[in-house]
Task: structure prediction
Amino acid sequence: MAIIPARGGSKGIPLKNLQKVAGVSLLARAINAAQASPSISRVVVSTDHDGIAAEAQRAGAEVAHRPAEIAGDTATSESALIHTLSTLDEDFDITVFMQCTSPFIDSASIENAVRTVRDDEADVVFSAVEDHSFLWRLDDATQAVAVGHEANFRPRRQDRAKHFNETGAFYVMRTAGLLEHEHRFFGRIGIEEVPPEHAREIDDMSDLTLVRAIASTQETAQVIDVDALVTDFDGVHTDDGAYVDEDGNEQVRVHRGDGMGISRLVKSGVPVMILSKERNPVVTRRAEKLNVDVAQGIDNKAHILSAWIDTNGLDPARVAYVGNDINDLEAFDVVGWPVAVADAHPKVLAAARVVLDRPGGRGAVREVCDLIPIPAEAAGSPAGPTLTSLRTATGHPSTFTDSQPSTQQQRSLLTNHAASARANRKQVS
Result:
């Protein structure tokens, strides 16, 4: 079994375990890695925080609620492991201790370590990376003293014995030994060497910024498995430019292929909405042509997006939002699939779960639509009635301002044809 300790009281980064890398929380990334290891049959998260517990359950893990006496800064990870084991209804020969602060855990490496212990080649195996550093410390007189090498002997890297740096990502242990020694290291200790790219660990915000940048360039999705799609308009459906005539009227350029992609989703009953900060009739006209929901003039996208998700009976974790600029980051936090166009702002690229190959206005919307799977039985189904705009009681298009409507008012703006949308969605759920 795998145990993932995840306290809510991290100091360097508040609620660090819920921070997202490539659109997925650090906790969920650890859970996913454990679940992908064939030898691991149960994954349990030990936590003292309700939000972390909810995220663990969303990701498919069990939760062991940690008592306050072992949830403080001085509590050891071992105390959380032993407490969790005491709450289980079955015994496990091998315990895998994983840490959320390592965002790039490879399930194949976990599996190798488990097999080493299972095959009785070691009692404990931990993840480590080869390290060629010359280490130093300061003595009581603040003089530098060599650690693990002679100061006057500088052998070449290839002539030196291998040294390893403990990554902290995972530890595989015989459960009986852990319970006896109350420590992660005992008996015969082995190393599962991991590549440097899997050895990143997050302690502070600079670490988090770095791993987000790395993930945005390395991790791509072949499928975006969602039930609904929401997009920004400017910079997503357009290239973020505009044509302005002498009277101040604006025109924008859109991509015809985007329309075909949206049409495929709409005909299959997948809810789609355009959510824009701009107050421009062209946004409404485009939404009407595509036959999708629209909300524009929105300064707080997260509120409207949450209301739309709630009205349509959707799971936020199965909704994709496509954005390009920093005002989309609040919407990214609402959904499970934040998606960035190729030419998005660097902060948006770093926060995205998926970065598209195409820029805004150049087929990005078509690309994301093509990544959303549609079951064969739904692909040819006729389109049901959908909203073409979010309207007020007077029938006029909504134009929200900084003075946002109440939650109930927001929901009332989104209720038209909601039942039809849900009925259509049953075909593809």
